[in-house]
Amino acid sequence: MLTRSVNPGSLLRTLALFTILALPAVASADSVALMSLGGNAEQARLEEIEHTMGEVLRAQGHRLASPSSASVTHPPTSAEMEEVAAASRALYVVVAEVQPMRGQYSLSVHVYYRAAGRLEELVVTVLEAQERERLADVFRSMVRRDGLGEDALRLTEDLSPEEQARRDAEEAERREADAQAALEAEEAARLAAEAQAEQDAAEAERLMAEEQAARDAEAARDAEEAERLAREAFDARTPYGADGDWMVQLRLGGRYAGTVGSLPAGAQGGGGLFDAGLSLGRSFEGLEGFELRGGVDFATGAYSALGVHLGAAWLASPIVEPIFIGVGGEIGAIFTLTGSRDVGFSARVSALLAWRPTEHFYLEASLPELGYVTPGAGAITIGASLRAGYRF
Questions:
Q1: Residue 280, SS3?
Q2: pLDDT tens, 51-106?
Q3: What domains appear along the chain, each with residue ranges and CATH number?
Q4: Are 109 and 98 in contact (CB under 8 A)?
Q5: What confidence category does residue 259 fall into, taking pLDDT thresholds of 50, 70 and 90?
Q6: Which residues contact 360 (CB under 8 A, 6 or more apart)?
Q7: What is the pLDDT of residues 111-131, one digit of tens each?
Q8: Which is it for strands 323-336 and 343-358: parallel, antiparallel or unpaired?
Q9: pLDDT, position 297
Q10: Which of 47, 92, 127, 192 could in theory staple to 32 by disulfide, Cβ–Cβ 3.0 to 4.6 A?
């Protein structure tokens, strides 16, 4: 058996040389430089088609290389494509143009395969309804080492009138479906907006109702608080006679006296009376507002007389302010100092109104004050009086 020794150093140099030579090919293997699309379509549509092309190439296992800044003519030359491929370190260069038509577009594709220096061109029609499938079929046939081959005829074959009519019908149906979907979406958006508006209105109404309820509750609380304060103030009011059980009053009054019987010949009839007096009052615990009164007074005018009276008064405290209303009456005897100079009966009643301007001090009015006296022919009196009193 013969054996041949291998020099290890020679083997390492061979492997290193092979690796260096293979690196560029590995780096550019199956990478595609997709140039920006040209054509008459709107820029937004060109970018959309270019994006779809990139997705299709990636889905087929290709890696998109960063395109070179070098420009190419339309149609491009092999020299231009080689320059782009070298600058982009790409195995394939794809240049395409789009010419839009109704529901479809014409796509002119140039694919340069750098390993063989091969430039192929293909013009195909792409229906928008089948765009992704059509682009996938085109790139599957062109972006490969074998090139187009017999697929060129299949991809560019003319469609029969029946097939074209079928595809046109499908495209029309698709457009109608898209339009219907757009209308439905618009209607759904309108209904959603109306529902949102109703919801917003209901929410606003609910908030207004809550605010109104809060205001009503606050107003009710305020009213209740005001009522409570008023009730407390009323309960805490000063009742009549709270300053003391005893009261001294000075009285000034004026009345008109009209005789009720016949007078002797030459006797004077009724006339005005003016009186002043002093009285003493006494209230009792448990009888709020009630007071016994007695005093003396002097009257002059139609007649002159000295009177002694005994009576009572009752005054209520109907409001918070120290103002009191009530009634009073008294009976007594009068001693006339003129005319027949006799003794007679006297009685008077009146409505009372009193005010307590300060502690212990009271002002009181009798209005009207009705009376009856019997001396002589007798007389009915009507008038008013004012009294100032001090309680202790």
A1: strand
A2: 999 999 999 999 998 876 667 888 899 999 999 999 999 999 999 999 999 889 99
A3: 23-167 (3.40.50), 246-262+270-391 (2.40.160.20)
A4: no
A5: confident
A6: 243, 244, 390, 391, 392
A7: 999 999 999 999 999 999 999
A8: antiparallel
A9: 95
A10: 92
271 SS3 class = strand
Please report the sign of the dihedral spanned by the C-alpha atoms of residue 114, residue 116, residue 119, residue 122: negative
Are 207 and 249 in contact by the 8 Å Cβ rule? The answer is no
Whether 95 and 35 have beta carbons less than 8 Å apart is answered as yes
CB 358 within 8 A of CB 332: no
Distance CA 205, CA 360 (A): 60
b/e code 338-363 from CB counts within 10 Å (16+ = b): eeeeeebebebbbebebebeeeeebe
pLDDT band for 160, please (50, 70, 90 cuts). low
The answer to whether 279 and 255 are in contact (CB under 8 A) is no
Q: Residue ranges of the alpha helices (H) in 146-160?
A: 151-156
Paired strand residues for 312: 292, 329
pTM of the model: 0.46
Query: CA angle, 252 as apex, 246 and 255 as ends, to 5°?
Result: 125
Q: Which two tokens stand for residue 151?
A: 């697929």
**Nearest to residue 33, comparing CAs of 63, 65, 59?**
65
The tokens of 15 are what? 């492997």
Q: How many CB atoms lie within 10 A of CB 83?
A: 17
Q: What residues contact 306, with CB distance under 8 A and at least 6 apart?
A: 296, 297, 298, 299, 334, 335, 337
Closest by alpha carbon to 335, among 294, 314, 304? 304
Matching residue, tokens 């599957």 = 140
| Interatomic CA distance for residues 390 and 392, integer angstroms | 7
Please state, in angstroms and rounded to a whole number, the distance separating the CA atoms of residues 304 and 254: 13
Tell me if 33 sits within 8 A of 92, measured CB to CB.
yes
Q: How far is CA 106 from CA 55, 122, 153, in A?
A: 20, 10, 16
